[in-house]
Specification:
CATH superfamily of the largest domain: HAD superfamily/HAD-like
Oligomer: single chain
CATH topology of the largest domain: Rossmann fold
Low-confidence stretches: none
CATH architecture of the largest domain: 3-Layer(aba) Sandwich
Strand order of the largest sheet: 5-4-1-6-7-8
Number of domains: 3
Shape: elongated
Order of helices and strands: EEHHHHEHEHEHEHEHEHHHEHEHEHE
Number of strands: 12
Largest sheet: 6 strands, parallel
Bound molecules: flavin mononucleotide
Length: 390
């Protein structure tokens, strides 16, 4: 297990936005510049004070003037941090990790002065090492600051994970050769994190602690489960043959009761046939109208009384594999459904495909490249009433 955790500060451990905005506005006002809102500042932070101040200026500013303004900003901000707080559960997380023998560091693009003030005031001795912005080394996403933290801690990249809330942090993890746990409570929306390549999303400090202890493989699987959403509009772009084969070989690994069912898979890319499948039932077959691939699952109900269970398990394996392959999918239920004329949807599918007698169809999967954005699911609450811990 990786037992060193390198944390970003702003938007990850601490909610600093109000104080950053107030301090920036104080300095901007001294130059007669307009104030920024907290919402604007959310987009400006993450790349260091220079980038943040230049963005807040909202107009041309010379490097000399920027240097001068930053000279005023750094000490002013360090001395005015009344509203900054650790996010919910962060102190408990750090205490728990420390008790379990984890080593921890803060690695931030923030200037040294405010970083030191904040870490001393709010984190005390919970973190072992703090590396802040310095002219001596390139800032994140370059790996140098992470390497400095590793040097001070006496650990290697194989011991470490990186935790942050922005695309800069995702890139920092990648450039440093370690997993990045991207937290969704910070200053970036989840879709920004996913687009920047995040493959581990954590939605709370409690989940972060759990996933750090379970390891990054389970964290990635959990993220795959969150990312999988039913997609109902697909790009006009074929699914590559090797991906179709990867899907089918994954399906063959699905469990079946007593291995009796022999679920069969028909991969259909002919648009006319997929169009006919879309008409097999009255409601909810819309995704098939744009899908470049339809996977029809059938099972022999005479051979296995668990044909519905067997088919359903294969379907979810296929949906997860599709997500892992960068594809999206939607389950189109056929069993128990009717078409517009009140004809049985399953029989319609059998007719369209000329299925042998006895083969039953629980569902068709519409698969392709997504043409609609769907928000990732969030961590479900373990306080959910459906969960009973006996
Ligand atoms: C048994 C079953 C039948 C479903 N039937 C359809 C369907 O016919 N058409 C459709 O668009 N979605 C169908 N879905 C997808 C659900 O609507 C979808 O999974 C649910 O709304 C949750 O959304 P999510 O998959 O994005 O998390 C079905 C899902 C299941 C498990």
């Amino acid at each position: 297990m990786r037992k060193t955790v390198l944390f970003d500060l702003d938007g990850t451990l601490l909610d600093t936005l109000q104080d950053i905005t107030s301090a920036t506005n104080e300095i901007l006002s001294r130059y007669g510049r307009a104030a920024c809102t907290v919402a604007e500042m959310r987009d400006f932070v993450g790349n260091g004070a220079r980038h943040q101040f230049r963005s807040s200026w909202k107009g041309d500013i010379s490097e000399e003037l920027l240097d001068e303004a930053l000279e005023l900003y750094r000490p002013y901000y360090a001395a005015h941090i009344p509203d900054t707080r650790p996010y919910d559960g962060i102190i408990e997380l750090l205490k728990g990790l420390k008790a379990d023998g984890f080593r921890m560091a803060v690695v931030t693009n923030k200037p040294v002065l405010p970083t030191t003030s904040l870490c001393n005031k709010l984190l005390g001795d919970l973190v072992d090492v703090v590396v802040a912005e310095s002219p001596e080394r390139p800032k994140k996403p370059a790996p140098d600051m992470v390497e400095e933290a590793m040097r001070q801690l006496g650990v290697t990249r194989d011991d470490c994970v990186y935790v942050g809330d922005s695309e800069v942090d995702v890139a920092t993890g990648r450039n440093s050769g370690m997993p990045c746990y991207a937290c969704t409570w910070g200053y970036r929306d989840t879709d920004v994190l996913l687009r920047s390549g995040a493959d581990i999303l954590v939605d709370s400090a409690e989940e972060l602690g759990r996933m750090l202890r379970c390891g990054e493989k389970s964290a990635r699987l959990m993220t795959l489960l969150k990312r999988r959403r039913s997609v109902r509009k697909f790009e006009d772009r074929p699914v590559e043959e090797e991906k179709i084969r990867a899907l089918l070989s994954a399906a063959l690994l699905a469990p079946t009761s007593r291995s009796l069912s022999e679920v069969e898979y028909r991969a259909i890319t002919d648009r006319t046939v997929i169009g006919f499948l879309a008409q097999c039932k009255e409601h909810g077959a819309g995704p098939l109208t744009t899908a470049p691939l339809a996977l029809v699952l059938t099972a022999d109900a005479d051979k296995a009384d668990t044909w519905i269970e067997d088919s359903s398990l294969a379907a979810i394996v296929l949906q997860l594999m599709a997500e892992e392959l960068g594809l999206a999918s939607c389950w189109i239920q056929m069993h128990l459904r009717k078409d517009e004329g009140d004809f049985d949807a399953e029989e319609n599918v059998a007719r369209v495909l000329g299925l042998p007698k006895g083969r039953r169809c629980v569902c068709v999967l519409a698969i392709g490249y997504r043409a609609e954005e769907k928000e990732a699911n969030r961590e479900p609450s373990l306080k959910d009433l459906r969960i009973h811990r006996l």
